[in-house]
């Protein structure tokens, strides 16, 4: 292995200009692909293809369509209502003309209502008879009482109105047409005439676009911050500017290549991918750092520059290869989950880690080979510093009292792990976004002012022979709806019953009744009247063949746990009011997120098991000892459970992103253990004595381990500036777990080695081969 | 009499000018229907995916000096059998159409006035405005070209609503057969110019000097949905009187 690497390095250093040019050309060729990267944050994207929710969602779309809507909220001013209605007319016309895929625009100026008397029914504009501000205000009050219009066209204190924009189904032969809507709105609302109206734009295509924007901005920002942080940390530790920027430049090239390849293969990105560049930067940089440090060591030993590069890089090749393999194995373990975006993060990160290794070996020696003088570090030679002194003290103490140190560390870990049962699986997609984002501010505003940000749909199926044309069934439905409405999370419920009640009001010319038709015959009449009168909502509530009814529910921002409770409540109400034999399906974005979270929780177990198995196998082979291989996993599993226990004690919920925590930490943390045990094995093979081998290993390996852990933990700390709370928690927890893993490597592992003595002393003590 | 003179003048002018204007073509279309009254049975089959709904209606139409009067009675589906409605439409775009509806199950007759044109007709691919006659003056008509349409030749005319709010559509493109001045097909576009649906008219037959299609197929351009209307038992000039189109008939 050593000879192979040495030969390779000789060729690379010899042809360094060509190697550098070739690498740059390759990256440059992939750069244009970055602009074509596609984001997919639909809730469906996170569900496994085989999940029943996908089928339910497809069935729902088939029954009731999937046309998006957007809502423009306009603050109402009591003394300017007439003028505002005119503005709404201008705005609506502009939307019809300038926003793609718009089907209809409804606002106060063109909202039609049915009014009736003894002889006739009039389908007329709501404001037809309104002439002044007071009359408009009166009409708006009446609108608030109608569930079909309330919280869309008028909020409960009549301070805001909405402009409802409905869209046609998006064309299937165009690339992501939905993404065209929000930028078109941005352009429209930037016009002076509309910018003065203080409009707030919401709706699924808008939130989807804004979420993409947030992710894109954040991905770039986090990456930039991690670059700056890495340069500063490397500069501080290595005291050499070139040794600081070379690894970072190499990682930048590796990351760009990774994302270029993602685009080249036509893969999409999700919210989870936003952390991948930072992961590659933090994890992949270790290879470059090890090469740089080994090169420095050779220079200090008096080697000539080119020789130092070849020897140094070759010496650390095996551990770098192994650590990259174990890290990639940790990421690839995500393949065991059913969630496509998580599998993608695993593949992308694994590719990134492997590319980091390739680029490190391709470019670090080449870039350090340039210049008139060899790159030297500013480290003081010969004199042990504070870290060296503390490491020596720690080694002596652990060797003297291994049971006390090992037992103490284990007990402390156990105390923290005891918090694990308190972990709750919960994600709130709205509250998980920082309040400093416009997206969150708008969501909170809608939650408070316009009757809830989240939607949920209940679909009730009636056999074809029974159909929906039954007064008794409609009455049962009313009971069910009243029950659902009584739940504290539910803000409003809209259904066919509202359509029937409005027809009843018109026919009986009673403005305040909520009565429903009391016979099948009347029910049929009312529906016919509604449709012939220009009613457009029937398709929203009744399926084409009239066997399925939809009930549209709006709720305040819910977490997955709360949504699960609400779904259970809805099902219980359905059992009580409609009978358990009636098929009831509950669907909606938050329901899908809950299903996704459950899958992820299950997926984490299988990913972790897979990562554990593969890494254990690698460790056993590398360390040439099954016992040592298995023992090496303990310091890496423990930090994961300790971090999870800490979450339990601290009351932090296990959310979507954090679910990927365990396999990732295992894959990364084990790198330090590899470096530790490879050095220990070499030292033990020489001396055959546990105490001296451990002392030498702690002192020699401890420094780079502290060094890389510091870089890793601080690298992850850039996630603290993320606008997604899940990423922030992930960053802190990962930093904590890596630190705990370092302590385990320096305390628990030596103690275990001393207590269990898993290796036999070598028969003949010969100088260890460098390879 | 006045209309006949106007039509004659138009026909003469077309022989000289070769290509009439869009407005002239629309007048030719309207005048090609010389019937006084007409009765027919309409069978509507609405297919969406693999589900099909059927509606069967009897329809009677009377041409008047001001416009048209239409009486319709549903036979199928069974739950709305006997439901009738009456429409009085006026050629003058400023005069609102009148519609009366009888609800036999409730024993009620109500006059429906006002809009409602954008409502979907019986869950089909047609809007209420698609089945109601549209006055020539409601739109501006522009002749675009003459081209082959199947075995025939057609004028292609673009019609745009004079008042954008008066229609759900941004524009319609009609292929008008040059031989019988009837539509071969009509494309309806959204206000952003996206094709929404296309109606094809086939099986034209001549009844007492007027041409009527025996089938209209409307396909939705945005989803897998189709409405097929077959016109059966077409009878023309049965001397229907205005009395047959009064509200009394709904009771």
Describe this structure in words.
The complex is a heterodimer of chains A (771) and B (251). With 771 residues, chain A is α+β, with helices and mostly antiparallel strands. Chain A has 3 domains: 2-42 and 210-418 and 594-756, Multidrug efflux transporter AcrB transmembrane domain (Multidrug efflux transporter AcrB transmembrane fold); 67-198; 438-587, no CATH class. Helices cover 62% and strands 8% of the residues of chain A. Chain A is built from 26 helices and 12 strands. In chain A, strand 4 and strand 5 (120-125) form a beta hairpin. In chain A, helix 9 (241-264) packs across helix 13 and helix 12 runs antiparallel to helix 22. The longest helix of chain A has 35 residues, at 204-238. Chain B has a single domain (2-250), classed as outer membrane lipoprotein receptor (LolB), chain A (Clam). The longest helix of chain B has 16 residues, at 2-17. Chain B is mainly beta and 251 residues long. Chain B is 12% helix and 49% strand. A 13-stranded antiparallel sheet of chain B has the order 6-5-4-3-2-1-15-14-11-10-9-8-7, with helices on one face. Chain B is globular. Residues 1-16 of chain B have low confidence and may be disordered. The interface between A and B is large, with 44 and 40 residues. Strand 5 of chain A pairs parallel with strand 6 of chain B, so a sheet runs across the interface.
State the name of the first-level CATH class of chain B: Mainly Beta
CATH class of the largest domain in chain A: Mainly Alpha
Q: How many discrete domains of chain B?
A: 1
The name of the CATH superfamily of chain B reads Lipoprotein localisation LolA/LolB/LppX
Oligomer: heterodimer
- What distance lies between the first and last C-alpha atoms of chain A, to the nearest angstrom? 7 Å
- Low-pLDDT residue spans of chain B: 1-16
Strand content of chain A: 5-15%
Distance between the termini of chain B: 36 Å
Low-confidence stretches of chain A: 765-771
Largest interface: A-B, 44 and 40 residues
Coarse morphology of chain B: globular
Rg of Cα set of chain B = 18 Å
Give the integer mean of the pLDDT values of chain B: 85
What would the CATH topology of the largest domain in chain A be?
A: Multidrug efflux transporter AcrB transmembrane fold
Let me know the number of strands of chain B. 15
Major sheet strand order of chain B: 6-5-4-3-2-1-15-14-11-10-9-8-7
- Averaging pLDDT over every residue of chain A, what do you get? 84
Largest sheet, strands/sense/barrel of chain A? 4 strands, antiparallel
What does the largest sheet of chain B look like?
13 strands, antiparallel
